[in-house]
Amino acid sequence: MIARKIPLIPTLFLLPSLLFLSIFIYFPLVQNLYNSFFEFSVFSPTKEFVGFASFQQLIQDKVIVAAFINNVKYAVISVLFQVFFALILATILEDKVFRRIAPALRVIYFMPVMISISVIALLFTFVYNPQMGLLNSFLELIGLENLATPWLGNATTAIYAVIAMSQWQSIGFITMLFIVAIQKIPKELYEAADIDGAGKIRKFFNITIPQVKETMFVNVLITVTGSILVFNEPFILTGGGPGFSSTTLSVLMYEQGFGKDNMGYASAIATLIFVLSAIFALIQIRVSGTGKDD
Amino acid sequence: MKKMLLFSMFLLLLSSILSACNSSDATTAANEDGKVVIDFFHRWPNEPRKSFYDEKIKEYMEANPDVHINVNSVLNDSYKEKIKVLVSSDDLPDIFSSWSYSFAENLVSSEKIMPLNDVLSEDTEWSSSIIESQYDGFKFDEETYGVPFTVDGKAFFYNKAIFEENNIAVPKTYDEFITALDSLKQAGFEQPLVEGLTDTWAISHYLGTIFERVVDPAVLEKDYAAETGEFTDPGYIQGLEIFKELTTYMGDVSTAMDHEAARNMFAAGEVPVLYMQFAEVKMVEEAGDVEIGFFDFPAVEDGKGDPTALTGAPEGWMVSKTAPKETVDFLKFLTSEETAAEFTKTDGQLNAVKGAVTPDNVNATSQEAYELVTNASSTAPWFDNAVNINIADVFMRGGQELATGQSTPQDIMKTVQQEAQSLRE
User: Fold this and answer.
1) Contacts of A149 in chain B (CB under 8 A)
2) Which CATH number is B26-152+314-380's, of 2.60.40.10, 3.40.1440.60, 3.40.190.10, 2.40.50.100?
3) By CB neighbour count within 10 A (0-12 exposed, 13-18 middle, 19+ buried), where does A287 fall?
């Protein structure tokens, strides 16, 4: 057997991305871990070594648990809506019945993805506004005014109101990914199913789902890791409030770091977020066997 | 979008390193044309102050052709965050706006702020034109680090017409205030009082004043200092209960609103009472045409605190240690009587420069407020500036939880005491 030489040219091509990854991702990751063993503020010229104190605080902090539960709610609802509902939406859009208007509908569903999240969040503060908001006005219009509530100011509804906005915004993106996957499914499969007399629902479960499995796992991965990192939506809409009822881990990290100036503790939270998202990603990759195509 | 989330996460992770990489040439004061460059940073990207300062900068540069001023501005909460990042880097602007007390103290602790005692004593004509008591919030260890400019205070503003219609007298005590709110409620005002509780600072303003009323000033002084704070006085629980009682008059929309929305409701005559700053008088007048009066936060009967202490603190200017010497001249220009008078005329906010607030440039309500501020027996700083931010945050979030009924005063105080203990250590 001939000893393999390391090919020069491909290695060279890999170098730039490797360089950027290490400068902007791996190095900060290590630096962050290092920071979480210290206590410091942005004003202090020195850092004080505290060992695992921040992590101890992390375990005892009740707010962390509340924030994590909010992240889990985010993840569960996002997977339900963005993965399963988006798949159904994509299938419908690819159906022959909608052939003519599908391109227009695709654009409509994809539009929110292209709008900046800050704009969307501001838009939704008007939708949820307790006095003149669209949502409450609509509920009153159809006679359900007893359901109207200050959505973002109520501790039980705040987090769901935030999650709902995310679903509206992101579903188009995931749908688009599914549409691409569905278009790649060989037509022969559907034709064969037609000849065998399979209905639309049968075709969906026996052809579409198995064929887009790979995309589905990728989408689950995107939504779940995204849910663990979610920051913009709750931060702009509610600032984590009222109380801590809509705080997520990232919002908490930001508040600790830049609001309360506990940079060491914020680093510890960042480490926790990294570990959590890494664990979820590993589990999913493991379960789905992504990469071992067919 | 997910990419963006990832990206913003990494930005946060990166920030510590970025600030280290961000070494700049702030110390080199002259640019290519030999002009002295002054970096000016303030917190009013909104009108009318933005145009006012842009105009003033232009005026100053015309009078001093060898100086060039770079201006930058971001709004309130973002300003707090940005100035923190700037002070930790070497990129601190030459002259910038700052709140007084703990906010200023934090900035000063970076050792990058220019001590101003010498500058002030060199030009007493200028420094004595500013009301002496207002310097307090910028003095740390006998050294002054900032020049106060705007002054402010907080009081309950009420709609005169509505009060007259319902025969309600201006309340002198807290009990009378509650009675007044009750009768307003009976008169058909679903929410006789309003506040935007999503703005946590608004909660801190309430709590700060309530504590001034119900807690012994000596206890407050001990508790507000991070090294000795214990927060075991039963007055705090009483104070939180008072706040909880007040939130019951705010209706359930308050937790979903910001202070600006609350102010607009007041200005439109929908709500008869609002706790607000004197600085907002002009905004109310511009937003609606209600006739307003004000009264101080009423005394609490069995409260051990100061029944007439006024909550409010000045804001002012700070200069960085590395700033070119022309900056001081620009500072004097910004706080001159002429600039100050014009400022109050344009903006309506009162300022600390003697002779700059006159019946010519403010209305009667503001004039009355100005006298109250400048003659107050004692002024207490804003609560979120007076205590450590970790303590303030528990109170502010706790205030929201009280309003939504998620928490009790006892629970909040327990958390505060824990937080205070970890700060003492």
Assistant:
1) 252
2) 3.40.190.10
3) exposed
Mean pLDDT of B109-123: 87
At B294 the three-state DSSP class reads: strand
Whether this model's pTM surpasses 0.90 = no
B84·A42 Cβ contact <8 A: yes
Asked if the structure places residue A112 within a domain, the reply is yes
**Residue of A26, A33, A39, A43 to mutate for B, most B C-beta atoms under 10 A:** A43
The predicted pLDDT at position B19 comes to 43
Per-residue pLDDT at A22: 92
Residues B277-306, mean pLDDT to the nearest whole number: 84
In the predicted structure, residue A286 carries a pLDDT above the cut 90: no
Please judge whether A153 and B88 are an interchain contact, meaning their C-beta atoms are less than 8 angstroms apart.
Answer: no
Tell me if B126 sits within 8 A of B69, measured CB to CB.
no
User: Complex ipTM, two decimals?
Assistant: 0.79
Mutate one of B397, B406, B412, B421 to test the A interface: name it (highest A CB count within 10 A): B397
Q: How confident is the model at residue B31 (pLDDT cuts 50, 70, 90)?
A: low
Taking an 8 Å cut-off on Cβ atoms, the answer to whether B256 and A35 are in contact is no
State how far residue A255 is from chain B, nearest Cα, in angstroms. 10
Tell me the one-letter amino acid at B223.
D
CA B66, B71, B75: angle at the middle one, nearest 5? 165
Secondary-structure class of domain B154-311+388-424 per CATH: alpha beta
Q: How far is CA B106 from CA A44, B174, B385, B396, in A?
A: 9, 35, 10, 20
**Beta-carbon separation of B406 and A42 below 8 A:** no
Among the listed residues B334, B332, B321, B326, the one whose alpha carbon sits nearest the alpha carbon of residue B34: B326
**Which of B256, B401, B406 is nearest residue A150 as measured by Cβ atoms?**
B256
For residue A32, list chain B residues with Cβ-Cβ distance below 8 A: 13, 16
CB–CB of B9 and A24 under 8 A? no
Of B13, B256, B401, Cβ closest to residue A130? B256
pLDDT in tens, B170-225: 888 999 999 999 999 888 888 899 898 888 889 999 999 999 889 988 888 888 88
> What is the average pLDDT value for chain B, to the nearest integer?
83
Please state, in angstroms and rounded to a whole number, the distance separating the CA atoms of residues B294 and B267. Answer: 14
